[in-house]
Amino acid sequence: MAQTCEICQKTPRVGRNVSHSHIKTSKTWHPNLQRVRARVGKSVKRINACTRCIRSGKVIKVA
Known about the structure:
The chain is mainly beta and 63 residues long. It has one helix spanning 51-56; strands at residues 13-18, 24-29, 33-40, 43-50.
């Protein structure tokens, strides 16, 4: 739950790096999560939101 966007449920993805010599190693891509104070319903809470959700306006930030 710690590395999940609370708006779009984006989580870490796994895959493989492939070098020029075709050696494959495991790789993890993490979403760019930010801890922001946001309006959730009628209350203000701290949530983990990815930058894509913040930028697109899905998160209403509170000063």
